[in-house]
Amino acid sequence: MTTPLPERAARRCHNLINPFHSMLYFSPDLQREMAALGVGHQRAAYFAVRSAAMGAVGAGAVTATFYNFSPELVARHVPAVWETASPAAVLAARTRAVDATVRRLLGEEVVSSKETAEAAELALCATEACVRHARPLYAAHSDLPVPEEPHLAFWHAATLLREHRGDGHLAVLLRAELDPMEALVTHSATGKGMSSKWVLATRGWSRADWDTACGRLRERGLLDADGELTEAGTALRADIEAETDRLDRAPYEHLGADGVARLTELAGALITRARDAGAFPESLIGKG
């Protein structure tokens, strides 16, 4: 009989796997690889790298699947980026950047370790229970081949698990009636999301957009006059995460309690080492 997962075990595991994927977007190795293709703008590179698995899609598809970016910012770079670099070229550059980033942050000894290979094996096992329906970013990435090298295979599996959860999360945000800006504001207000500084610097929204969203949230009783979540706002964010957990339970139930615990341990050690090596900006997370 399968041992039930402890409460929030899947979320804890995801919270350590997800940054292993996302550290790529802060990597100078990615910037270098994309610049070599002629894509020098950081936002253009991000949109291309994350959407390339879907093919040469337009601004509408990127806006819909990424959810929290300003449509105007997306349209500034997509589909024009595909005239500079094809999706196939972008995916190849992404793989090279992942390889360079992981080797630089973790070191050759960790990259070639049995623990990294074990993490890849466990994460790939979890992806066997992911589903494609209504999950466009996951489904597109699931068509890509699994890399042979363990550190690349682990990054690939982390990407699949991230996008699987993310696709489900967007459905939950719609049900909660939080538009992209409101979702960003409330997540930042939890202290666990990107700081307002990073949101405004990277998502294409203005301070006026932020303030207007705060006004709407105050009218709904979700945010107080100081920009903090009210009791109702805190409850809504908790419900959003719980429902996201429910929609994302299959991969971790498939892996089982022991497998999830071991993957959490291994992923935690890897991402801690990467963070200590400077994988992320210090001001990324928080309310400021």
What report would you give on this structure?
This is SalK. It comes from Streptomyces gibsoniae. The structure is a single chain. This protein is an all-alpha fold. It is built from 16 helices and no strands. The protein has one domain. Helices cover 69% and strands 0% of the residues. Helix 9 (114-127) runs antiparallel to helix 16, helix 11 (150-175) packs across helix 15 and helix 12 crosses helix 14 (207-219). The longest helix has 28 residues, at 249-276. The N and C termini lie far apart (47 Å).
Label this structure with key terms.
288 residues; SalK; HTH_67; single chain; mainly alpha; 16 helices
Q: What general form does the structure show?
A: globular
Beta-strand residue fraction: under 5%
The average pLDDT is 96
The tally of beta strands, per DSSP, is 0
Query: Unreliable runs, pLDDT <50, ≥5 residues?
Result: none
Q: In total, how many domains does the architecture comprise?
A: 1
Largest sheet: none
- Distance between the amino and carboxyl termini: 47 Å
Q: What helical percentage do the residues reach?
A: 55-70%
Give the ordered list of helices and strands. HHHHHHHHHHHHHHHH
Radius of gyration: 19 Å
How many helices? The count is 16
Strand pairing plus helix content: what structural class? mainly alpha
